[in-house]
Request: fold
Amino acid sequence: MPSVTLQMSGYLAQDDLVAGVIENVVTVNRMFDMLPFDGIDGNALAYNRELVLGGVGVAGVGTAITDALDVAAGKTAKNAATFTPVTSMLTTIIGDANVNGMIQATRSSDGNDQRAVQVASKAKSLGRQFQTMLITGTGANFQFSGLDKLMPAGQKVTPAVGGQVLAFVDLDTLIDTISDKDGAVDYILMHARTLRSFNALLRALGGASINDTVELPSGNKVPAYRGIPIFRNDYILTNVVQGGTPNTASVYAGTFDDGSRTHGIAGLTASKAAGINVVQVGEAEDADESITRVKWYCGFAVFSELGVGQLTGVTN
Reply:
């Protein structure tokens, strides 16, 4: 007599279902945990950057302090300091999680709350959108401007050795562009492709330095160069045409703001609605669906232009 089939037995029992969802859409950005966020009131933050120092001159005993003092040296003792006003705007990253009422009622008993799963996915997408714009945000179509857009021309350097292949001298030059915190550098960012090339440079030296790491406050360790943590960031594009060369990437370095709003970079968020907010909107008017809105009022600021640097045109 034939035995019961697997298909038939499945009508009478259910397979075990693992609670939760295994992540399969992942882009690595290890710096994100370290990025400081500054809560602001209003929808923008205005600040001033130093442009020209106030003038001084060299005087002897009894010398009159006039506008013409030490003109030969290009200085005037009465010139006032000048500044450049800058504004960093907040934007909204937002998404609605819509879940059918019957699905929520009948398909949420196996360890996976249907609404919670959708909300968690939306929150993850918000974080990914922010991290994308942190590098490539254009300032158009409601995006905030990212590092590529805000990088001053004077803070960009190009590879000096071996065409456009990464070399230690390039990283040294990049580090030298950072003078914001008296030359201290808080981070180096590079794509996984470039990080592999960096490790190849270390192996060519015998590999001893390949174990140089920095421990983060979280206890995790990341690679280091000259004591500076290197964060893998796969939101950095590797298919950019730079200097006429295709498929290049950039390496970034800089400082984090310390809360004074005078150093390096910081994320911005609304102080009265900080971080990702989840709002239960309610039932849709024309469908049996509940709407949960997930939103983040956020932005990005480069406070000091001397606190960011970019090595462009890296081909490996």
In short: Residues 283 and 290 are 4 Å apart (CA to CA). The two ends are 66 Å apart (CA to CA). Residues 47-58+65-89 form one domain. The chain has a mean pLDDT of 84.
